[in-house]
Amino acid sequence: MSIEQEVEALKNIPLFANIDPSRLKLMAFASERLTFKEGKELFHQGDAGDAAYIFIEGEADVIVDTDDGPLVVATFGKNDFVGEIAILCDVPRTATIKAKSELVTLKITKELFFNMVMDFPEMGVEVMRVLAHRIDHTTSQLTEARNALAEKTS
């Protein structure tokens, strides 16, 4: 994949849709293109966060450790990004990300990510929107799980 193709891929991600193509070219050039084979982990829950990943092709499962073992809580694919929570909050990774199929990503380092957010405040707003959507989705899932459990125990 060429830099131009990576820039086109970045333009399709809402987070980067309003950023000047020349800046996206710089970002694509500064990021690392990585391919993960099916079953390989991008990172593991509890690891230190050093980068976020943008999915160019393929899918990956989001897995959290539970008392009953690993639990897949979501699947992300093309144009999604993961890993931003650990680099935004300086906390350990909140989940494991494992390639569900061959996965092509752009690895965005913490430094590059923060530089982009500082240079483009609209990107920061978009990050907040994505995170708010994820919180809303998680809250809905927890409510459904609680209601299902309440029905089982009644």
Automatic annotation (TrEMBL):
InterPro entries found in the cross-reference section: cAMP-dep_PK_reg_su-like, cNMP-bd_CS, cNMP-bd_dom, cNMP-bd_dom_sf, RmlC-like_jellyroll
Cellular component terms per the entry's GO annotation: cAMP-dependent protein kinase complex; cytosol
One MF annotation (Gene Ontology) recorded for this entry: cAMP-dependent protein kinase inhibitor activity
Cyclic nucleotide-binding domain ranges (all copies): 15-134
Pfam families: cNMP_binding (PF00027)
Protein name: Cyclic nucleotide-binding protein
Organism, scientific name: Kiloniella litopenaei
